[in-house]
Amino acid sequence: MNYNSTRDQNVCVSSAQAIAQGISVDGGLFVPQQMPTLTKEDLVEIAGMNYVDAAVKVLSYFLTDYTHEELVECAKGAYVGSFDDDQPAPLAKISDTAYSLELWHGPTCAFKDLALQILPYLLTKAAKKTSDGETKVILVATSGDTGKAALEGFADVDGVKILVFYPSDGVSAMQKLQMTTQKGNNVGVCAIRGNFDDAQTGVKTIFTDPQKGKILKEHNMAFSSANSINWGRVVPQIIYYIYSYATLLREEAISYGEEMNVVVPTGNFGNILAAYYAKEMGVPVGKLICASNQNNILTDFIRTGTYDRNRDFYTTLSPSMDILISSNLERLLYHLTDGNAAQVKAWMESLSATGKYTVDDATKEKLQNLFYGGCADDTLTKQVIGAQFEKNGYLADPHTGVALKVYETYVAETQDTRVSVIASTASPFKFCKGVLEAIGQDASAKDEFALCEALSAKTGYAIPASIVALKELQPRFTDICEKQEMWQTVTTMLGLN
Ligand SMILES: *Cc1c(COP(=O)(O)O)cnc(C)c1O
User: Would you say 23 and 201 are in contact if contact means Cβ atoms under 8 Å apart?
Assistant: First the structure.
């Protein structure tokens, strides 16, 4: 299978090339040329598989220039030994019709691990297939969770250097500590004065600047990306939506053909896009429910067809969703317009020139048939976390809380009672303060670990071992740079000046 750029149909690359490069030179994102299809037999087969085998099967549809042995090596390396009970994506039943897809049982306690544990394997193999021993320089912009998950995945991986930029005031205390204490000889972390969008725009600008690419080449280096603009981030996320449906089949919670709704707390639109791909591949998915926090640009877009980033930016309890430019929407627009790259390019140019664009009616209709958009602010999110805990004893982090609230609103509005899978994207222990407040507990302690212990004592939930371990570590990375200084920071970290 080959990949086109969302902004230029003449660009055509292999899957290894798409992963090695991260983003197309025209600024577009790589998208698969065809949509593989899963039959009933495929889904029944997956229902009988463990996660590793399911991963190999799903990846093999998209990564056709990797051998079966290579994919097995990638999936085993990623999913054996790194997740609690070797179950990367368990489903927890929270009501008669709702399941929580717990994607935070990995090393950094957020769903990013599902893709970032495997991306290093995919990328190093891709680099071997496509280039000649160049060192890959991975630049990451993070709203909190990607940074740590990427650092953890790539630390001390041969032939790779990784540099992470995070918004200085835009991540939780625990997220920051996870990143600044990262071990490894090939890692760098720097805060920027700005928000996630500034970090992401800065990184994309560096990536697509030919002059900077040339400087790296002179040092036998090349950029790549571990953000969800990289196809290698999106494709592993498709696995767990397919696997969820297969799990429901296996547990006889659903019969084949019956649809499941999917609810996803959304920021950069990567996770929900993966659910869309699963649906397009033939998994019986009903509504794709896109949940936003107070930064509800996607809610407005789904309801009106206008994407408008000329609005206030809010710092919320769910920092990994504090985003106004959802990169992966570009991939969806490409598919909804049947691959109209010129149109997508025009919209994206309008977005960067004026901060907005409006899609045509046909595209809007398709969008609304597939998706429901809703949002919840911090107050509503805390309420639902508190109520869930009281009612079902189920503890959700604030990102998952946003999804739970939007799901509640959706059901009340539509009376749609199909089985629903709610993506639970982070451990509550990454956001102790907000969660303690949500369940009506004192959260005034200054020390993060004291807050964790209070949360554990109150709820009976165990603190994840990787968070306990942080307590003993000293921060290694304390630099802050201006958003205009990102390139300088990169060259310093790489030792190029
Ligand atoms: C990254 C993240 C999200 C948003 O996912 P996208 O793929 O960016 O839409 C939601 N919740 C958590 C905890 C995250 O880390």
Answer: no
Q: Is the CB of 265 under 6 A from ligand 1?
A: yes
Cα–Cα distance for residue pair 423/10, rounded to 1 Å: 36
* Strands of 336-479, DSSP E: 356-358, 371-375, 420-424
Contacts of 97 (CB under 8 A, 6+ apart): 417, 418, 419, 420
Q: Hey, how many other C-beta atoms are within 10 angstroms of the C-beta on 210?
A: 8
pLDDT per position in the chain (497 positions), as tens?
A: 999 999 999 999 999 999 999 999 899 999 999 999 999 999 999 999 999 999 999 999 999 999 999 999 999 999 999 999 999 999 999 999 999 999 999 999 999 999 999 999 999 999 989 877 789 999 999 988 999 999 999 999 999 999 999 999 889 899 999 999 999 999 999 999 999 889 989 998 998 899 999 999 999 999 988 998 999 999 999 999 999 999 999 999 999 999 999 999 999 999 999 999 999 999 999 999 999 999 999 999 999 999 999 999 999 999 999 999 999 999 999 999 999 999 999 999 999 999 999 999 999 999 999 999 999 999 999 999 999 999 999 999 999 999 999 999 999 999 999 999 999 999 999 999 999 999 999 999 889 999 999 999 999 999 999 999 999 999 999 999 999 999 999 999 999 87
Q: Cα(135)–Cα(124) distance, rounded to whole angstroms?
A: 10
The alpha carbon of residue 23 and the mean position of all alpha carbons in its chain are separated, in whole angstroms, by 16
Q: Is 112 in the pocket of ligand 1 (CB under 6 A)?
A: yes
Q: What are phi and psi of 131, to 5 degrees?
A: -135, 180
For residue 143, the CA-to-ligand 1 centroid distance in Å is 8
What number does the ligand 1 atom closest to the CA of 430 have? Answer: 13
The response to whether residue 327 sits with its C-beta less than 6 Å from ligand 1 reads: no
Q: Residue 201 C-alpha to ligand 1 middle, in angstroms?
A: 18
Instruction: Please give the helix or strand (H or E) that residue 192 lies within, else none.
Output: strand 187-193
102 C-beta closer than 6 A to ligand 1: no
For ligand 1, what atom is nearest to the CA of residue 425?
13
How many angstroms does the Cα of residue 41 sit away from the middle of ligand 1? 32
Q: Which residues are catalytic?
A: 112
288 Cα: distance to centroid of ligand 1 (angstroms): 15
Model's pTM, two decimal places? 0.95
Query: 399 in ligand 1 pocket by Cβ < 6 Å?
Result: yes
Centre of ligand 1 from the C-alpha of residue 266, in Å? 6
Cβ–ligand 1 distance for 134 under 6 Å, the answer no
